[in-house]
Design a protein that fits this description.
With about 300 residues, chain A is mainly α. Chain A has 13 helices and two strands. Chain A has a single domain, classed as ABC transporter involved in vitamin B12 uptake, BtuC. Classes of the chains: A mainly alpha (about 300), B alpha/beta (about 350).
């Protein structure tokens, strides 16, 4: 039975969009606190590798998810130590973190390449599974990470925009001096943003290795960390817009695979470019207004608290 | 900065310390060095070499194998091979296609060390090339898929549309059509040999569009086989015969490399001092083997597949003209054939394949 193109693309978009969304949410929190982490790709890899290794060693995918989240958070704390405490250049440290992520994830994952794991269990409500067309697709047959992706986005939105903590984090990203003057410690807030962002980045990696592919291979993220960084700009640093962004980018990848599977006469190379073409277009379109929406102190090091 | 540098250096020292091998107590008759571009536990290409050499080391007394994983296709490879030669390696397998140029450089410097490279190009007195010709072996795989499919739509995921991969797809479709004229093969290109998430997406897309048997030509079949298995589809494996462990119910059959007899000959020739750098290309029955059938495959289908395999082993080639490509033009004139050395030249899909080359 052939599935309508739209359903197939939607199904694929949700599956590959899940990890993009977690990664984008994590980076959004971090960038809202004024820090650019170009090492997101490395964080995803660390999450994927630690999650898979833990699941393979313990036989329980949930331990893998927890370990991945903790490893992602720890990696970002290490990054925080570089850029917040040591005040190193954020872009250079981010790239260093990325290569560190490549290396450490390969080292951790090496003994478990080819290991067979029981992935995260999937659950599809029976009334949804009975809908026409749905049965033969991946729709609504999701693991907990996919089911929770949108609720987590709402949670992040709530935390950033409706809590005192979120106000303070956003203020650090705009004017750390003002936060310092108001009696809060910008460094502590940045560490909090980094560790929660890293936790989400670790979950993104865990979804890739523990659910979507059930394998670990070096550099399996294949640039998804960078797409997520572009997605942060695309969604204008807003967690709810990130949902649409992740779906759109996941959909671009799904569309080219589905079109090929339907025997479309479009060149696979051309189709392969679509996600990246979309990234370029988005950067072009938002480029002009970027300064208006980006946190004002994004990428700048705050020297104020030591006087 | 110095601190960061210190950490980086410390990290590498740690890595070397963790991977260092103790010196050999008594000198063996032959040390074989192997370098892999990835990990050898990949249920795929690298594992096929690892398993074969482990067998050689087990069966030939006095043979030791030293291995290096994740050796990049860069001058790193040269350095690792030099290190292996210092450890006494006299026979080296640079197993990735991209290790070729670096291996050739090392071979020129060490005329007393012998090299066997899976690929093509000139041979030298100490440099041989070999590969398993998989294309014709895909024909019996197509027979199996054509018989097992209920939707008459077969899926094939390939990393990149190179000639060898197209040849595999073409033979697969020709085999399927020979037993099921309605069988079509839908090709999805992921754009890389090891993009796991895209492989999962490709397998899902093929299943969404009604394919019920999925075959693949990527580095490791693990992701695709597991994705297909989870959705109740059938799969045909490639690269390593062990991949069937990943699909207890949906496994049909598969192709794997069996290098052991050839490697055994090479190792013996080095020990006896009569190594010759040759180009050795062997197909089904020699360097390529068919994996055991899955539980869902009925006996009569198994028989058809075995018969087709026997014909291929006796010299039958599916690439015998006339063959039309999938745009309707004549691709191979009547009576013409394509031999093993020309398999890399495919730039067309045979009629019945749904896909576009470029």
């Amino acid at each position: 039975m052939t599935t309508p193109l739209a359903l197939g693309v939607l199904g694929g978009a949700i599956l590959s969009g899940t990890s993009l969304l977690y990664a984008t949410l994590g980076e959004t929190i971090v960038e809202r606190s004024g820090i650019v982490n170009l090492g997101l790709e490395g964080i995803l890899l660390i999450g994927a590798s630690v999650g898979f290794s833990t699941a393979a060693a313990t036989g329980n995918a949930w331990f893998g998810v927890m370990a991945a989240a903790m490893a992602g958070g720890l990696a970002n704390v290490l990054f925080g130590w570089l850029v917040v405490t040591r005040r190193a250049n954020q872009l250079a440290s981010g790239l260093a973190m990325m290569f560190f992520g490549f290396g450490i994830s390969a080292l951790v994952g090496a003994p478990y390449v080819g290991a067979v794991i029981v992935g995260l269990p999937k659950w599809r409500p029976s009334w949804l599974g009975g809908l026409p067309w749905v049965q033969s697709t991946t729709l609504f047959d999701y693991d907990a990470l996919t089911w929770l992706a949108v609720p987590v986005a709402i949670l992040v939105w709530w935390a950033l925009f409706w809590t005192r903590w979120g106000l303070a984090v956003r203020a650090v990203g705009e004017r750390p001096g003002a936060v310092f003057a108001s009696g809060r410690n910008p460094s502590v807030l940045q560490y909090q943003a980094l560790s929660s962002g890293g936790l989400l980045g670790g979950l993104a990696g865990a979804h890739l290795s523990l659910s979507l592919t059930k394998t670990w291979a070096e550099y399996m993220t294949a640039g998804r960390g960078f797409i997520a960084i572009a997605l942060v700009i695309f969604s204008k640093w807003h967690p709810l817009r990130a949902i649409a962004g992740a779906l759109l980018f996941g959909g671009a990848e799904a569309l080219q695979l589905q079109l090929q599977a339907r025997g479309s006469a479009v060149s696979p190379f051309l189709l392969d470019m679509t996600p990246y073409l979309l990234t370029l277009l988005v950067l072009l379109a938002w480029g002009g207004s970027r300064r208006l929406v980006a946190p004002a102190s994004l990428g700048r090091t705050f020297y104020g608290s030591d006087g | 900065m110095t601190r960061t540098l210190g950490f980086i250096i410390g990290f590498f020292v740690l890595v070397f310390w963790l991977t260092a091998k103790p010196a050999f107590a008594d000198s063996p008759r032959l040390i074989i060095g192997v370098i892999y571009v990835g990990s050898f536990n990949d249920y795929g290409y690298n594992k096929s070499f690892h398993d074969a050499l482990a067998q050689v080391a087990k069966d030939l007394p006095g043979v030791t194998v030293i291995e290096a994983e994740n050796v990049a296709e860069s001058s790193d490879a040269e350095r690792v091979m030099e290190g292996m030669i210092q450890q006494g390696a006299k026979l080296i397998f640079p197993t990735s296609f991209g290790h070729k140029d670096f291996a050739r450089k090392v071979a020129k410097r060490h005329r007393d060390v012998f090299f066997e490279h899976p690929g093509d190009g000139d041979t030298e007195s100490n440099f041989g090339v070999f590969f398993g010709s998989t294309q014709t072996a895909w024909y019996p795989m197509g027979v199996a898929a054509g018989k097992m499919t209920k939707s008459n739509k077969l899926g094939f995921v390939i990393g990149m549309p190179i000639g060898y991969a197209l040849g595999n797809v073409n033979a697969f479709e020709l085999g399927a059509k020979s037993v099921n004229p309605k069988a079509q093969t839908v090709v999805v290109v992921t754009g890389g040999w090891s993009d796991k998430a895209k492989e999962a997406g490709a397998a899902n897309a093929l299943l969404d569009q009604g394919c019920d048997v999925v075959a693949m030509h990527v580095d490791s079949p693990a992701t695709i086989i597991q994705t297909v298995e989870a959705r109740g589809g059938m799969s045909i494996g490639f690269q390593s015969l062990e991949a069937r462990a990943l699909a207890p119910t949906g496994w049909v059959t598969g192709l794997g490399f069996t290098w052991t007899p050839f490697f055994m000959d090479v190792a013996k020739s080095v020990i006896a001092g009569r190594f010759q750098g040759q180009a050795v290309y062997q197909g089904l029955g020699q360097m390529v083997a068919i994996a055991p059938f899955g539980p869902a495959v009925p006996a009569e289908v198994q028989k058809l597949v075995t018969n087709a395999a026997n014909r291929v082993m006796k010299g039958f080639t599916p690439f015998t003209g006339p063959l039309t490509d999938n745009t309707g033009s004549l691709a191979l004139p009547p009576g013409a054939t394509i031999n093993n050395a020309q398999m890399g030249n495919f730039d067309w899909y045979v009629d019945g394949v749904i896909g576009k080359v470029r």
